[in-house]
Each structure stands twice: as structure tokens, then as C-alpha cells.
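During the second half of the funding period, the structural biology subgroup turned its attention to how the target accommodates small molecules. The most pressing case was N-carbamoyl-L-aspartate, which had performed well in the primary screen but for which no bound structure existed. We therefore specified the complex as follows and requested a full 3D prediction, including the ligand pose.
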Amino acid sequence: MSHFSKKEKIIENYGIDKGKRSNQFKSRLYSEPRWDPSWKKFRDMEWETFSKLEVAEKIPLFTKNNRLYDCLFAQQFDRELLDRLCRVADKLREITKTSAGDRFVTNLLFDKRAILVFNQPSSRTFLSFQNACHILGMKTSEIRDVSTSSFAKGESPLDSIRTFASYVHLMIMRMKEDGFVEQSAWHLNSKTNRPIPIINAGSGTDQHPTQALLDIYTMTRLLDGGIDGKNIVMVGDLKRGRTVRSLSYLMKNYSGVKITYVSPEEFRVGLDILEFLRKHRINYTETYDFESAIRDADVIYMTRIQDEYDKNGESKKVDYSKYYFKPEHLKIIKPTCIIMHPLPRRNEIDPKVDFDERAVYWRQERNGMWIRAALISYIFNIDHKIMVYKVGV
Ligand code: NCD
């Protein structure tokens, strides 16, 4: 014989009154809607149609509550957001110098988890993202070899992405296939009820928006007077280098910038980028002449040959040595010029150049961790907490 009434039994079993139970579940489900109402119009749109839209038409599906949600394209950033992320990154550096500050920051996202899904080699981007998550207290898991996942059992890539996303609150993706990171975000936001934000950590030859962010952060920190009005010289495989593409897009946020593209004929920057620059009235020139171009540069942005995208070993036929930065070039560049490289480098920059104070690529890679932490804090809407934190109080 039970000593409990039916209602009491239920309360004992569930710890909650059954009458209130459905409401409690409802409030848990609906308290923080994952969906943005403005995404509704994309529900019935197939990928073939969506993928052909202009970037400006796509951006609403990757924006939630008027805030960047998925970070996929450099075109999603305006000047206000870029300046803000630079300030948040600076503040994070400052706060985490004290153990009290460090504890405060690691509590900000202690209840969140991220997964890093990378099917291309990576050192800096992987580690800086992983450590950016750890700075904010997020736990991380990773898939670096998709052959160990159910991709290998014939699962559709989008089903795999949905599975990865189902355990975490953020997915950071690097994919060798152009457009697949974007397709994943499109799928989660328009075809499932459980989207999570996705950050593009490099998609094929297409874009690498967070590399461009850290490049901007580095220039903002190191150039006297910031980026406005500067002459930025980009060198190398501009055709397949996704960092150059994303960085070129971000230049629309700065006034009076001049871009000089230096590359062999085979690796000239894409016509879509040049069209974008013309549309936004950004001054640019193209040249094969490395030595003349670097003389009055404020920034020299070196890149490596992207031969992993060769179809028939075509890169081997290109003489790239004219596009190497050698120690003697240090004598002809401006004293205030900075030399950057997204890294990894091969022979494009002689290691002897590393000792010159204008060589900033090692600082550039460390900046990546801080600006990525700033970006994640922005996506989770906690960046204001970082900004109002009083250091030393
Ligand atoms: C770049 C990339 O992956 O596109 N690396 C990086 O993320 N720092 C540049 C490159 O690999 O050449």
C-alpha cells in the first residue's frame, strides 16, 4: 500500500508537479529560441538556389537578433564591428594578466562546449581557436580526420555535421571543399530546429575570414595611425590564397587604402575580387615587379604557393623565387613598414628576416588567439561583460 497520493508520487518521481511539468518543459524549450524569425523565408529554399544568391542576400540567414551568428564571409564585418573586436581582444589580453581577471574570463562560457571539425592540415588556426575557447572557459572536442567519423560509413556529410552539432554550442570548421562550411550553416539554420553558430576557419580556396580578422587586428595595433590611407602590398599565390581574398574584402571598411597585388601571371588575384574593389572604389594595382612594389609599402603581406590545389602539378612550372623576401630587401623598404605572413611559410621569407623588428608574423599568429576569443565572446553576446570588467578592482 502506498502512503502517497498519485500526485505526490509523481512529484517524488520527477521532482516537479505534473501540472506544471509541461510548462516547465516548454519554458526550457522556448526560453532561448534557437531560431530567428527572419530565417523563415529560407525554409523552403534548396541549396542550389541559396548558393547562387548574392552574399548580401545570404547574410540574413547567418544573422540572429541583428547580430553576427555564423561567421562565414569577410563581407559580414563592418568597421564598427572590426573596431569593437579589436578593443575586446585588447581588453582580454589586459584582463587575463591577473589571476582574478583570468578566473573571471574562464567563467564567462564555462557552460558551453565547442567542436573543431578540420579536414585540412592546420597548426595555428586549430590551436589558436582551441585556446581561444579555453580562455573563455569553453570545453572543446575535435574531429581532425573525418575518416574516423561516420563520413567513412557512407553517412551524408550534412547528416554528419548535424550529428557533430548536436553535442555542442559552437562549431569551428575548416574544410577543403569550397562552400561546404557555408552549406553546413545553411543546413543547420534552414533545415533543422537545432542550429548552433558555425565559424569558418578556412574553406577551400574561397575564404578565411578569421585570418583576415587577425590580420586587421595586427595592422591596427602596429601601424601608426591605423589602416586608413595605407599602401598594402599582397604578394604570392593570390589566385588560390583564401587569406588574401578575405583580407581584400575587409579593406572596404577603411578609407584611402591602396592595394598592390604582386604575383606571377598564373596566380593573379580573382576577377571577382577586383570587381568588388572597383564597386567599393578601393584603389588597386597589379604588378609582377616585387622590388618596386615593396619600396613604398606600409604593409607587405607575403603568402605561400597553394600547391595543394594543383590539378596536375602546375605550380612546379611557375618561377616563384622572384616573389621571395630576402634580407637585402630590408634595406629598401620603409622604416615603418610591417612584414606579415599568414604562415606557414616555405621560402617566401628568409628566416634571417625574422630578427628585423618590422617582421611581425610571429606576433601576428599570437594575435589570432585573442581576436578569435573576442569573436567567440561577441557571438555569445558576452563581449560587453569583458568591456565593463574593471581590472585590478
Ligand atoms: C593559411 C590558410 O590555411 O589558408 N594558413 C593559416 O590559416 N594561417 C595560409 C596558408 O596555408 O598558406
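Two results from this model are relevant to the next phase. Residues 1-5, 7-19 have pLDDT under 50 and may be disordered. Residues 37-208+368-388 form a domain with the Rossmann fold fold (CATH 3.40.50.1370).
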